[in-house]
Amino acid sequence: SAVISQKPSRDICQRGTSLTIQCQVDSQVTMMFWYRQQPGQSLTLIATANQGSEATYESGFVIDKFPISRPNLTFSTLTVSNMSPEDSSIYLCSVEAKGGGFTYEQYFGPGTRLTVT
Amino acid sequence: GNSVTQMEGPVTLSEEAFLTINCTYTATGYPSLFWYVQYPGEGLQLLLKATKADDKGSNKGFEATYRKETTSFHLEKGSVQVSDSAVYFCALISGGSYIPTFGRGTSLIVHP
Fold first, then answer.
1. Residues of chain B found within 8 Å of residue A41, distances taken between Cβ atoms
2. What's the CA gap between B72 and B4, in Å, rounded?
3. Chain B contact for A110, CB < 8 A?
4. How far apart are alpha carbons A100 and A105 in whole angstroms?
5. Smallest Cβ distance to A42: which of B51, B99, B103?
């Protein structure tokens, strides 16, 4: 299993500014992911955070808007740049780690609730 | 491609009522199926899973059976509690991917 913490848990930001969200895992993991959950919507994968190389972004998401760092196997950051009200969402960090037996499962952090005014 | 369809919410029930949240899917190959729960103000937690046809996942009184013939994975609970109020997400992993495809989520509200 994996226990994930995120900072901050919530923030209210002005448009045009940037916010960096931190994700810390209690064990070394290979795969780390960042998701966005817009109000009343399902989860959308933003990118896979790769250790030692650039993140892999999904269609519709770009590095200039959502730069990601992954300096080691337990930590990652996501920055939401030049924010607009449309960026108001919950941002979730996720990892793939061993579950029961020999299976791998996805574990999620508590999320960062961002409101842009 | 893969997709997951869940019934629209919110689902509003009285305590001790029977719960069903429908989930159907389309997928390549033989997917693994999951239900996640998101309590207010928290991230997603894995509730239960099933990895092959006719498997039944169960946890905390919730059950779901992997039905290949109807491509469904409906979530059920015999007697809900107020503490079960949350958003429930159906998801699948298939085609060699390690990234889940999520449904839209179904909000459950249980009244005393």
1. 104-105
2. 9
3. yes
4. 9
5. B103
pLDDT 10s digits, A64-112: 999 999 999 999 999 999 999 999 999 999 998 776 665 677 889 999 9
> CB-based contact (8 Å) between A2 and chain B?
no
Cα A104 to the center of its chain, rounded Å: 19
Residue A79 tokens read as: 């920055």
Coil/strand/helix, residue A69: strand
d(CA B25, CA B21): 13
**C-beta atoms of A106 and B51 within 8 A:** no
Instruction: Let me know the angle formed at the C-alpha of B70 by B67 and B73, rounded to the nearest 5 degrees.
Output: 45
pLDDT tens, position by position, B30-87: 899 999 999 987 888 889 999 889 999 999 999 999 999 999 999 999 999 999 999 9
Q: How far is CA A51 from CA A2, A28, A75, B3, B70, in A?
A: 17, 11, 9, 29, 40
Contacts of B98 in chain A (CB under 8 A): 31, 96, 104
